[in-house]
Amino acid sequence: MNGSYLIKPVLDADYPVISHGKGVFLFDKEGRDYLDASSGAVTANLGHGVQEIITAMAEQASKVSFVYRSQFTSEAAEKLAEKIAEMTKGRLEYSFFVNSGSEATETAMKIAIQHWQEKGRPTKHRIISRWMSYHGITIGALSMSGHVARRARFTPLLEDYPAIDAPYCYRCPFNSTYPSCGLACATQLETAIKRIGSEQIAAFIAEPVIGAAGAAIAPPEGYFEKIKAICDENDILFIADEVMTGFGRTGKILACDHYRAEPDIIAFGKGMSGGYTPIAAAVVSEKVIEPILNGSKSIMSGHTFSANPQSCAVSLAVLNYVDENRIAEKAEETGRYLSSLIKRLLTGFRFIGDFRGKGLLLGIEFVRRQDTKEHFPAAAGITSLIIETAAKNGLLLYPSAAGKEGIGGDAVIIAPPLTITKRECEELVRRLRKTLEEAETIIR
Ligand code: PLP
Protein backbone atom coordinates (compact mmCIF):
# COMPACT_ATOMS: atom_id res chain seq x y z
CA MET A 1 0.00 0.00 0.00
CA ASN A 2 2.29 2.74 -1.27
CA GLY A 3 5.12 1.55 0.98
CA SER A 4 3.10 2.28 4.13
CA TYR A 5 1.86 0.04 6.95
CA LEU A 6 -0.62 2.69 8.08
CA ILE A 7 -4.32 1.98 7.49
CA LYS A 8 -5.53 5.21 5.93
CA PRO A 9 -9.12 6.25 5.13
CA VAL A 10 -8.42 5.37 1.49
CA LEU A 11 -6.01 2.48 1.87
CA ASP A 12 -3.84 3.07 -1.18
CA ALA A 13 -4.06 6.87 -1.20
CA ASP A 14 -0.93 8.94 -1.41
CA TYR A 15 -1.57 11.50 1.32
CA PRO A 16 0.96 14.31 1.71
CA VAL A 17 3.07 14.01 4.87
CA ILE A 18 2.66 17.09 7.05
CA SER A 19 5.86 18.31 8.64
CA HIS A 20 4.48 21.19 10.72
CA GLY A 21 1.73 23.75 11.17
CA LYS A 22 1.70 27.43 12.05
CA GLY A 23 -1.49 29.39 12.66
CA VAL A 24 -4.00 28.57 9.90
CA PHE A 25 -1.37 26.95 7.66
CA LEU A 26 -0.09 23.38 7.39
CA PHE A 27 3.16 22.58 5.58
CA ASP A 28 4.05 19.25 3.98
CA LYS A 29 7.46 17.64 3.59
CA GLU A 30 7.67 18.84 0.00
CA GLY A 31 7.37 22.43 1.24
CA ARG A 32 3.82 23.03 0.02
CA ASP A 33 1.52 25.10 2.21
CA TYR A 34 -2.19 24.49 2.83
CA LEU A 35 -4.55 27.13 4.16
CA ASP A 36 -6.62 25.01 6.50
CA ALA A 37 -10.13 26.30 5.80
CA SER A 38 -11.65 23.23 7.46
CA SER A 39 -9.61 23.22 10.71
CA GLY A 40 -8.98 19.54 9.91
CA ALA A 41 -12.36 18.06 10.73
CA VAL A 42 -13.64 21.38 12.14
CA THR A 43 -11.35 20.79 15.08
CA ALA A 44 -8.20 22.96 15.05
CA ASN A 45 -10.14 25.99 16.27
CA LEU A 46 -7.08 27.91 17.45
CA GLY A 47 -4.77 26.92 14.63
CA HIS A 48 -1.31 25.47 15.18
CA GLY A 49 1.55 26.38 17.49
CA VAL A 50 -0.26 28.34 20.23
CA GLN A 51 2.48 28.72 22.84
CA GLU A 52 0.20 28.83 25.92
CA ILE A 53 -1.20 25.41 25.01
CA ILE A 54 2.19 23.89 24.26
CA THR A 55 3.49 25.16 27.62
CA ALA A 56 0.50 23.70 29.51
CA MET A 57 1.07 20.38 27.74
CA ALA A 58 4.74 20.26 28.73
CA GLU A 59 4.04 21.33 32.32
CA GLN A 60 1.43 18.62 32.83
CA ALA A 61 3.64 15.97 31.20
CA SER A 62 6.37 16.75 33.70
CA LYS A 63 3.93 16.36 36.66
CA VAL A 64 2.09 13.09 35.97
CA SER A 65 1.28 11.36 32.72
CA PHE A 66 -1.71 9.24 33.71
CA VAL A 67 -4.03 8.51 36.59
CA TYR A 68 -6.91 6.08 36.46
CA ARG A 69 -10.28 7.70 36.96
CA SER A 70 -11.58 4.98 39.31
CA GLN A 71 -8.63 5.49 41.65
CA PHE A 72 -7.88 9.20 41.54
CA THR A 73 -9.00 12.52 40.28
CA SER A 74 -6.48 15.16 39.20
CA GLU A 75 -6.08 18.90 39.53
CA ALA A 76 -6.30 19.21 35.75
CA ALA A 77 -9.60 17.30 35.52
CA GLU A 78 -11.16 19.20 38.44
CA LYS A 79 -10.14 22.57 37.02
CA LEU A 80 -11.38 21.66 33.55
CA ALA A 81 -14.79 20.61 34.88
CA GLU A 82 -14.98 23.90 36.80
CA LYS A 83 -14.03 25.87 33.68
CA ILE A 84 -16.74 24.17 31.62
CA ALA A 85 -19.33 24.90 34.32
CA GLU A 86 -18.21 28.55 34.26
CA MET A 87 -18.31 28.77 30.46
CA THR A 88 -21.78 27.23 30.30
CA LYS A 89 -22.76 29.89 32.87
CA GLY A 90 -23.32 27.32 35.57
CA ARG A 91 -26.34 25.81 33.84
CA LEU A 92 -24.62 22.55 32.92
CA GLU A 93 -22.34 21.85 35.78
CA TYR A 94 -21.23 18.25 35.70
CA SER A 95 -18.70 16.92 33.20
CA PHE A 96 -17.98 13.31 32.27
CA PHE A 97 -14.77 13.21 30.23
CA VAL A 98 -14.21 10.87 27.29
CA ASN A 99 -11.92 10.85 24.28
CA SER A 100 -13.98 11.50 21.16
CA GLY A 101 -17.19 13.11 20.03
CA SER A 102 -18.73 9.68 19.38
CA GLU A 103 -18.05 8.65 22.96
CA ALA A 104 -19.49 11.97 24.16
CA THR A 105 -22.83 11.54 22.37
CA GLU A 106 -23.00 7.87 23.30
CA THR A 107 -22.30 8.73 26.93
CA ALA A 108 -24.98 11.43 26.74
CA MET A 109 -27.40 8.82 25.45
CA LYS A 110 -26.50 6.40 28.27
CA ILE A 111 -26.79 9.06 30.97
CA ALA A 112 -30.23 10.02 29.62
CA ILE A 113 -31.38 6.39 29.75
CA GLN A 114 -29.92 5.90 33.23
CA HIS A 115 -31.57 9.13 34.42
CA TRP A 116 -35.01 7.67 33.67
CA GLN A 117 -34.12 4.23 35.04
CA GLU A 118 -33.14 5.75 38.36
CA LYS A 119 -36.40 7.69 38.38
CA GLY A 120 -38.25 4.39 38.12
CA ARG A 121 -39.16 4.78 34.43
CA PRO A 122 -36.99 2.12 32.72
CA THR A 123 -39.08 1.92 29.55
CA LYS A 124 -37.82 5.37 28.53
CA HIS A 125 -34.82 4.10 26.60
CA ARG A 126 -35.17 5.22 22.98
CA ILE A 127 -33.61 8.33 21.45
CA ILE A 128 -35.22 10.43 18.74
CA SER A 129 -32.84 12.14 16.33
CA ARG A 130 -33.06 13.74 12.88
CA TRP A 131 -32.29 12.75 9.35
CA MET A 132 -29.36 14.91 8.20
CA SER A 133 -27.43 14.50 11.43
CA TYR A 134 -24.13 13.07 12.50
CA HIS A 135 -23.50 12.14 16.10
CA GLY A 136 -20.58 9.73 15.74
CA ILE A 137 -19.21 6.52 14.31
CA THR A 138 -19.59 4.02 17.18
CA ILE A 139 -22.66 1.79 17.00
CA GLY A 140 -24.72 3.71 19.58
CA ALA A 141 -23.81 7.12 18.17
CA LEU A 142 -24.35 5.90 14.61
CA SER A 143 -27.78 4.56 15.60
CA MET A 144 -28.72 8.13 16.48
CA SER A 145 -27.21 9.53 13.27
CA GLY A 146 -28.97 10.14 9.99
CA HIS A 147 -25.81 10.14 7.92
CA VAL A 148 -26.91 7.48 5.47
CA ALA A 149 -23.52 6.86 3.84
CA ARG A 150 -21.85 6.23 7.20
CA ARG A 151 -24.71 3.97 8.38
CA ALA A 152 -25.09 1.89 5.22
CA ARG A 153 -22.66 -0.98 5.96
CA PHE A 154 -23.83 -1.42 9.52
CA THR A 155 -27.60 -1.02 9.42
CA PRO A 156 -28.27 -4.59 10.71
CA LEU A 157 -26.34 -3.71 13.87
CA LEU A 158 -27.95 -0.34 14.49
CA GLU A 159 -30.67 0.37 17.03
CA ASP A 160 -33.88 1.26 15.23
CA TYR A 161 -34.17 4.77 16.64
CA PRO A 162 -36.84 7.06 15.20
CA ALA A 163 -35.73 10.12 13.26
CA ILE A 164 -37.59 13.26 12.22
CA ASP A 165 -36.85 15.66 9.36
CA ALA A 166 -34.24 18.37 9.68
CA PRO A 167 -35.03 22.11 9.54
CA TYR A 168 -33.56 22.32 6.05
CA CYS A 169 -35.26 25.41 4.62
CA TYR A 170 -33.37 25.35 1.30
CA ARG A 171 -35.07 22.03 0.51
CA CYS A 172 -37.95 22.09 2.96
CA PRO A 173 -39.05 18.50 3.68
CA PHE A 174 -42.64 19.80 3.72
CA ASN A 175 -42.27 21.81 0.49
CA SER A 176 -43.19 24.85 2.47
CA THR A 177 -41.57 28.15 3.39
CA TYR A 178 -40.79 29.83 6.68
CA PRO A 179 -42.66 31.25 8.55
CA SER A 180 -45.92 30.13 6.93
CA CYS A 181 -44.77 26.52 7.45
CA GLY A 182 -45.56 26.95 11.15
CA LEU A 183 -42.31 25.10 11.89
CA ALA A 184 -43.77 21.81 10.71
CA CYS A 185 -40.31 20.23 11.12
CA ALA A 186 -40.43 20.92 14.87
CA THR A 187 -44.07 19.85 15.22
CA GLN A 188 -43.06 16.55 13.64
CA LEU A 189 -41.31 15.73 16.93
CA GLU A 190 -44.67 15.90 18.70
CA THR A 191 -46.20 13.55 16.13
CA ALA A 192 -43.31 11.09 16.50
CA ILE A 193 -43.67 11.11 20.29
CA LYS A 194 -47.41 10.49 20.04
CA ARG A 195 -46.85 7.54 17.72
CA ILE A 196 -44.12 5.91 19.79
CA GLY A 197 -45.36 6.94 23.22
CA SER A 198 -43.39 9.25 25.49
CA GLU A 199 -42.89 6.39 27.96
CA GLN A 200 -40.55 4.84 25.37
CA ILE A 201 -38.39 7.91 24.81
CA ALA A 202 -35.46 9.07 26.93
CA ALA A 203 -34.15 11.97 24.85
CA PHE A 204 -34.11 13.94 21.64
CA ILE A 205 -30.66 14.70 20.20
CA ALA A 206 -29.77 17.43 17.69
CA GLU A 207 -26.84 19.50 16.46
CA PRO A 208 -27.65 23.21 17.00
CA VAL A 209 -26.16 23.80 13.54
CA ILE A 210 -25.99 20.69 11.34
CA GLY A 211 -22.42 19.87 10.30
CA ALA A 212 -21.18 16.80 8.47
CA ALA A 213 -24.61 15.68 7.24
CA GLY A 214 -25.83 19.05 5.99
CA ALA A 215 -23.03 21.64 5.68
CA ALA A 216 -23.82 24.29 8.27
CA ILE A 217 -27.62 24.27 8.39
CA ALA A 218 -28.93 26.57 11.11
CA PRO A 219 -32.64 26.24 11.92
CA PRO A 220 -35.15 29.06 11.41
CA GLU A 221 -36.07 31.28 14.32
CA GLY A 222 -38.22 29.59 16.95
CA TYR A 223 -37.31 26.04 15.93
CA PHE A 224 -35.34 24.99 19.01
CA GLU A 225 -37.69 26.88 21.33
CA LYS A 226 -40.56 24.76 19.97
CA ILE A 227 -38.48 21.55 20.15
CA LYS A 228 -37.56 22.23 23.75
CA ALA A 229 -41.18 22.95 24.72
CA ILE A 230 -42.27 19.64 23.15
CA CYS A 231 -39.48 17.80 25.02
CA ASP A 232 -40.49 19.38 28.33
CA GLU A 233 -44.19 18.65 27.85
CA ASN A 234 -43.37 14.99 27.25
CA ASP A 235 -40.64 14.41 29.87
CA ILE A 236 -37.97 13.98 27.23
CA LEU A 237 -34.40 15.21 27.76
CA PHE A 238 -32.88 17.49 25.15
CA ILE A 239 -29.31 16.55 24.20
CA ALA A 240 -27.45 19.23 22.25
CA ASP A 241 -24.59 17.77 20.21
CA GLU A 242 -22.10 20.63 20.30
CA VAL A 243 -19.17 18.44 19.27
CA MET A 244 -18.63 20.56 16.14
CA THR A 245 -20.14 23.83 17.34
CA GLY A 246 -18.99 24.14 20.96
CA PHE A 247 -16.57 26.75 22.32
CA GLY A 248 -16.90 29.54 19.82
CA ARG A 249 -17.27 28.02 16.38
CA THR A 250 -20.62 29.68 15.60
CA GLY A 251 -19.80 33.04 17.18
CA LYS A 252 -21.00 32.19 20.68
CA ILE A 253 -19.44 29.92 23.28
CA LEU A 254 -22.35 27.51 22.83
CA ALA A 255 -24.24 27.36 19.54
CA CYS A 256 -27.30 26.77 21.76
CA ASP A 257 -26.89 30.33 23.00
CA HIS A 258 -28.26 31.51 19.64
CA TYR A 259 -31.59 30.07 20.80
CA ARG A 260 -33.69 30.25 23.95
CA ALA A 261 -33.69 26.48 24.42
CA GLU A 262 -31.74 25.15 27.35
CA PRO A 263 -30.23 21.70 26.76
CA ASP A 264 -30.31 19.12 29.56
CA ILE A 265 -27.12 17.45 28.31
CA ILE A 266 -24.41 18.75 25.97
CA ALA A 267 -21.85 16.66 24.10
CA PHE A 268 -18.56 18.46 23.43
CA GLY A 269 -15.49 17.34 21.47
CA LYS A 270 -13.31 18.75 18.71
CA GLY A 271 -12.92 22.43 19.74
CA MET A 272 -12.65 21.41 23.39
CA SER A 273 -8.97 20.78 22.75
CA GLY A 274 -8.63 22.41 19.33
CA GLY A 275 -7.04 19.15 18.21
CA TYR A 276 -4.04 19.47 20.55
CA THR A 277 -5.11 16.27 22.29
CA PRO A 278 -8.05 13.85 22.15
CA ILE A 279 -10.71 14.80 24.70
CA ALA A 280 -14.48 15.18 24.72
CA ALA A 281 -17.23 15.39 27.32
CA ALA A 282 -20.85 14.77 28.15
CA VAL A 283 -21.90 17.68 30.36
CA VAL A 284 -25.14 17.47 32.30
CA SER A 285 -27.39 19.68 34.38
CA GLU A 286 -28.20 19.18 38.06
CA LYS A 287 -31.69 17.95 37.08
CA VAL A 288 -30.17 15.12 35.03
CA ILE A 289 -27.60 13.97 37.59
CA GLU A 290 -29.88 14.23 40.64
CA PRO A 291 -31.72 10.89 40.40
CA ILE A 292 -28.40 9.12 39.79
CA LEU A 293 -26.84 10.88 42.78
CA ASN A 294 -29.83 9.83 44.89
CA GLY A 295 -29.77 6.31 43.43
CA SER A 296 -26.88 4.14 42.27
CA LYS A 297 -24.39 7.05 42.52
CA SER A 298 -22.47 5.73 39.56
CA ILE A 299 -22.67 6.45 35.85
CA MET A 300 -22.38 3.16 34.05
CA SER A 301 -19.88 4.19 31.41
CA GLY A 302 -16.25 5.26 31.11
CA HIS A 303 -12.98 4.58 29.38
CA THR A 304 -9.41 3.91 30.44
CA PHE A 305 -8.39 7.33 29.16
CA SER A 306 -11.40 9.22 30.57
CA ALA A 307 -10.26 12.39 32.38
CA ASN A 308 -6.67 11.76 31.39
CA PRO A 309 -4.75 14.57 33.16
CA GLN A 310 -2.64 15.34 30.11
CA SER A 311 -5.72 15.87 27.93
CA CYS A 312 -7.53 17.77 30.68
CA ALA A 313 -4.60 20.20 31.14
CA VAL A 314 -4.46 20.86 27.41
CA SER A 315 -8.22 21.35 27.15
CA LEU A 316 -8.12 23.73 30.12
CA ALA A 317 -5.40 25.80 28.40
CA VAL A 318 -7.51 25.86 25.21
CA LEU A 319 -10.67 26.97 27.01
CA ASN A 320 -8.76 29.62 28.96
CA TYR A 321 -7.38 30.89 25.65
CA VAL A 322 -10.87 30.94 24.09
CA ASP A 323 -12.20 32.88 27.07
CA GLU A 324 -9.35 35.34 27.58
CA ASN A 325 -8.97 36.18 23.89
CA ARG A 326 -12.73 36.52 23.26
CA ILE A 327 -12.46 33.93 20.51
CA ALA A 328 -16.25 33.47 20.15
CA GLU A 329 -16.81 37.20 19.54
CA LYS A 330 -13.91 37.22 17.10
CA ALA A 331 -15.42 34.26 15.26
CA GLU A 332 -18.68 36.14 14.95
CA GLU A 333 -16.97 39.22 13.55
CA THR A 334 -14.59 37.35 11.23
CA GLY A 335 -17.44 35.06 10.18
CA ARG A 336 -19.41 38.08 9.01
CA TYR A 337 -16.42 39.38 7.02
CA LEU A 338 -15.60 36.01 5.45
CA SER A 339 -19.26 35.38 4.62
CA SER A 340 -19.53 38.71 2.82
CA LEU A 341 -16.43 37.91 0.73
CA ILE A 342 -17.65 34.42 -0.14
CA LYS A 343 -21.16 35.62 -0.92
CA ARG A 344 -19.75 38.13 -3.40
CA LEU A 345 -17.52 35.47 -4.96
CA LEU A 346 -20.30 32.91 -5.37
CA THR A 347 -22.57 35.17 -7.42
CA GLY A 348 -20.29 34.48 -10.40
CA PHE A 349 -20.87 30.70 -10.44
CA ARG A 350 -23.89 28.87 -11.81
CA PHE A 351 -23.45 25.64 -9.85
CA ILE A 352 -23.95 27.23 -6.43
CA GLY A 353 -27.26 26.34 -4.79
CA ASP A 354 -27.01 27.74 -1.30
CA PHE A 355 -24.51 29.46 0.99
CA ARG A 356 -25.29 29.38 4.71
CA GLY A 357 -23.99 29.07 8.25
CA LYS A 358 -23.27 30.82 11.49
CA GLY A 359 -20.05 32.41 12.72
CA LEU A 360 -17.17 30.49 11.19
CA LEU A 361 -19.18 27.38 10.38
CA LEU A 362 -20.15 28.00 6.76
CA GLY A 363 -21.46 25.72 4.03
CA ILE A 364 -21.77 25.83 0.26
CA GLU A 365 -24.23 23.52 -1.48
CA PHE A 366 -23.66 22.73 -5.17
CA VAL A 367 -26.48 22.12 -7.64
CA ARG A 368 -26.76 21.21 -11.29
CA ARG A 369 -29.49 23.81 -11.82
CA GLN A 370 -30.15 26.77 -9.58
CA ASP A 371 -33.82 27.15 -10.56
CA THR A 372 -34.82 23.54 -9.84
CA LYS A 373 -32.15 22.87 -7.18
CA GLU A 374 -31.43 19.64 -9.04
CA HIS A 375 -28.60 17.60 -7.52
CA PHE A 376 -25.63 16.49 -9.56
CA PRO A 377 -25.67 12.72 -10.12
CA ALA A 378 -23.71 10.97 -7.37
CA ALA A 379 -21.41 9.42 -9.99
CA ALA A 380 -20.19 12.90 -10.99
CA GLY A 381 -18.40 13.11 -7.64
CA ILE A 382 -18.71 16.90 -7.45
CA THR A 383 -17.83 17.21 -3.76
CA SER A 384 -14.66 15.16 -4.25
CA LEU A 385 -13.79 17.19 -7.33
CA ILE A 386 -14.06 20.46 -5.39
CA ILE A 387 -12.14 19.12 -2.38
CA GLU A 388 -9.32 17.73 -4.54
CA THR A 389 -9.08 20.84 -6.71
CA ALA A 390 -8.97 22.98 -3.57
CA ALA A 391 -6.19 20.85 -2.05
CA LYS A 392 -4.15 21.25 -5.25
CA ASN A 393 -4.60 25.00 -4.81
CA GLY A 394 -3.41 24.81 -1.20
CA LEU A 395 -6.88 25.11 0.34
CA LEU A 396 -8.44 22.55 2.68
CA LEU A 397 -12.24 22.20 2.66
CA TYR A 398 -14.43 19.68 4.52
CA PRO A 399 -16.78 17.41 2.54
CA SER A 400 -20.43 17.23 3.47
CA ALA A 401 -23.69 15.76 2.20
CA ALA A 402 -26.70 17.92 1.44
CA GLY A 403 -29.63 15.77 0.40
CA LYS A 404 -32.94 15.48 2.22
CA GLU A 405 -32.96 12.55 4.68
CA GLY A 406 -29.17 12.54 4.65
CA ILE A 407 -29.01 11.05 1.17
CA GLY A 408 -26.97 12.44 -1.72
CA GLY A 409 -26.25 16.06 -2.51
CA ASP A 410 -22.96 17.90 -2.82
CA ALA A 411 -21.67 20.40 -0.30
CA VAL A 412 -18.53 21.56 1.47
CA ILE A 413 -17.97 23.12 4.86
CA ILE A 414 -15.70 26.15 5.26
CA ALA A 415 -14.60 26.40 8.87
CA PRO A 416 -11.12 27.88 9.30
CA PRO A 417 -9.49 28.29 12.72
CA LEU A 418 -11.35 30.95 14.71
CA THR A 419 -8.09 32.88 14.95
CA ILE A 420 -7.93 33.51 11.20
CA THR A 421 -7.12 37.13 10.30
CA LYS A 422 -8.94 39.26 7.73
CA ARG A 423 -5.87 39.09 5.43
CA GLU A 424 -5.95 35.30 5.67
CA CYS A 425 -9.70 35.33 4.89
CA GLU A 426 -8.88 37.24 1.70
CA GLU A 427 -6.23 34.63 0.81
CA LEU A 428 -8.76 31.86 1.53
CA VAL A 429 -11.23 33.46 -0.88
CA ARG A 430 -8.52 33.92 -3.53
CA ARG A 431 -7.75 30.18 -3.37
CA LEU A 432 -11.47 29.37 -3.36
CA ARG A 433 -12.03 31.49 -6.47
CA LYS A 434 -9.26 29.62 -8.30
CA THR A 435 -10.75 26.30 -7.16
CA LEU A 436 -14.29 27.11 -8.32
CA GLU A 437 -13.05 28.48 -11.65
CA GLU A 438 -11.09 25.30 -12.31
CA ALA A 439 -13.96 23.08 -11.17
CA GLU A 440 -16.36 24.98 -13.42
CA THR A 441 -14.36 24.12 -16.53
CA ILE A 442 -14.67 20.41 -15.65
CA ILE A 443 -18.32 20.51 -14.55
CA ARG A 444 -19.44 22.17 -17.79
N1 PLP B 1 -21.02 14.85 16.72
C1 PLP B 1 -20.82 15.77 15.76
C2 PLP B 1 -21.77 16.91 15.60
C3 PLP B 1 -19.72 15.64 14.89
O1 PLP B 1 -19.53 16.54 13.92
C4 PLP B 1 -18.84 14.55 15.08
C5 PLP B 1 -17.68 14.37 14.18
O2 PLP B 1 -17.59 14.92 13.12
C6 PLP B 1 -19.09 13.64 16.11
C7 PLP B 1 -20.20 13.82 16.91
C8 PLP B 1 -18.17 12.47 16.32
O3 PLP B 1 -16.96 12.94 16.85
P1 PLP B 1 -15.63 12.05 16.73
O4 PLP B 1 -15.26 12.00 15.29
O5 PLP B 1 -14.64 12.81 17.57
O6 PLP B 1 -15.93 10.73 17.30
From TrEMBL:
The alphabetized UniProt keywords are: Aminotransferase, Pyridoxal phosphate, Transferase
One MF annotation (Gene Ontology) recorded for this entry: pyridoxal phosphate binding
The Swiss-Prot or TrEMBL record describes its family as follows:
Belongs to the class-III pyridoxal-phosphate-dependent aminotransferase family.
* Keyword Transferase annotated: yes
Q: Which SUPFAM superfamilies match?
A: PLP-dependent transferases
Protein name from the UniProt record: Aspartate aminotransferase family protein
Pfam families for this protein: Aminotran_3
InterPro entries xref list: Aminotrans_3, Aminotrans_3_PPA_site, PyrdxlP-dep_Trfase, PyrdxlP-dep_Trfase_major, PyrdxlP-dep_Trfase_small
Query: PROSITE patterns, per this entry?
Result: AA_TRANSFER_CLASS_3 (PS00600)
Question: What is the species listed in this Swiss-Prot or TrEMBL entry?
Answer: Peribacillus saganii
PANTHER family to which the protein is assigned, alphabetical: AMINOTRANSFERASE, AMINOTRANSFERASE CLASS-III
Q: Which Gene3D superfamilies does this entry report, sorted A to Z?
A: Aspartate Aminotransferase, domain 1, Type I PLP-dependent aspartate aminotransferase-like (Major domain)
